[in-house]
């Protein structure tokens, strides 16, 4: 990515439930990084995995963001409405011979995989890479990878290197249920929205080399990345809907913002303890120090 490009950042929650403190940390970090550099900040609903979406959650997320004083640029886009764009990208990869049909079920992959993937799953063993087994039909579509180093310099986590062939294997672009995979959707949307800087949680760090590989396959530019530390519970589990993270309380917005700023290493003065949401943002925008952000990928936080 050219450093002369204007700054365009984004916050991309999934409407699988309400926002929680971990979501707020990512939102605050990405918002302040964009605004203090004169950049735009967009909001995108990453609702491509439609079976996991909770009815009403998208609207509730936007109302929470407004209550917490966030202001975004342009319209909110929804991945669930962008199937045509993902289909077009997949067709380009198919025509270039970069994507291939896969007949394997999850059980078959589990039975034949010989190594774990870097994100905790199983590395695809390449069963269908040279063609479908006799009599089998396409269930999903995968992207071909190689085992050369795919690397990038993260603004917080430093140099990150993966060998996709051995660390992940050829990965899914369209699932057996017909839904497009997150990796394809996020890459297509980041290009569509002209995103130049991505600031998000370190739980997505392992996905980034796949996204960079996909960007290269599609001829897209690669944004600059910064992966913020992830808030975790006492058991070391990322705060999420699955780990029963408490939903953000809008009547405690100022206090929660201060908590997020402290989590991100900011030297919050004691006199802000009774500040309003607007006063917290005014201080944060005037005093944001990205270099103070902790580099560790995981930080334990007490549950209030």
Task: Explain this structure.
There is one protein chain. With 304 residues, the protein is of the alpha/beta class. It has 2 domains: 8-83 and 192-294, HUPs (Rossmann fold), CATH 3.40.50; 98-182, HUPs (Rossmann fold, 3-Layer(aba) Sandwich). Helices cover 31% and strands 17% of the residues. It contains 9 helices and 12 strands. It has a 3-stranded parallel β-sheet. It has a 3-stranded antiparallel β-sheet with strand order 4-5-8. Strand 6 and strand 7 (158-163) form a beta hairpin. The mean pLDDT is 92.
Number of domains: 2
CATH class descriptor of the largest domain: Alpha Beta
Strand element count:
12
Number of helices, where a helix is a run of at least 4 consecutive DSSP H or I residues:
9
What's the gyration radius in Å?
20 Å
The biggest beta sheet is recorded as:
3 strands, parallel
Stated plainly, the CATH topology of the largest domain is called: Rossmann fold
Strand proportion: 15-25%
């Amino acid at each position: 990515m050219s450093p002369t490009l204007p700054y365009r950042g984004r916050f991309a929650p999934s409407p699988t439930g309400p926002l929680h403190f971990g979501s707020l940390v990512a939102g605050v970090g990405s918002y302040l990084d964009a605004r203090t550099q004169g950049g735009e900040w967009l909001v995108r609903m990453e609702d491509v995995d439609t079976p996991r979406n909770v009815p009403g959650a998208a609207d509730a997320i936007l109302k929470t963001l407004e209550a917490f004083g966030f202001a975004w640029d342009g319209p909110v886009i929804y991945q669930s409405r962008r199937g045509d764009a993902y289909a077009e990208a997949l067709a380009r990869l198919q025509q270039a011979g970069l994507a291939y049909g896969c007949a394997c079920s999850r059980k078959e992959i589990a039975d034949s995989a010989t190594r774990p993937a870097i994100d905790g799953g199983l590395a695809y063993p390449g069963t269908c890479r040279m063609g479908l087994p006799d009599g089998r039909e396409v269930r999903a579509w995968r992207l071909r990878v190689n085992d050369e180093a795919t690397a990038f310099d993260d603004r917080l986590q430093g140099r990150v290197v993966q060998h996709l062939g051995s660390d992940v294997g050829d990965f899914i672009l369209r699932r057996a249920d017909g839904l497009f995979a997150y990796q394809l959707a996020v890459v297509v949307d980041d290009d569509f929205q002209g995103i130049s800087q991505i600031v998000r949680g370190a739980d997505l760090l392992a996905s980034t080399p796949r996204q960079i590989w996909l960007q290269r396959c599609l001829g897209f530019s690669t944004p600059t990345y910064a992966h913020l530390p992830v808030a975790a519970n006492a058991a070391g589990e990322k705060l999420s809907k699955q780990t029963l993270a408490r939903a953000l309380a809008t009547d405690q917005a100022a206090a929660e913002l201060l908590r997020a700023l402290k989590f991100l290493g900011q030297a919050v003065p004691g006199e802000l303890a009774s500040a309003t949401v607007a006063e917290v943002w005014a201080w944060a925008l005037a005093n944001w120090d990205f270099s103070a952000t902790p580099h560790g990928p995981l930080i334990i936080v007490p549950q209030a």
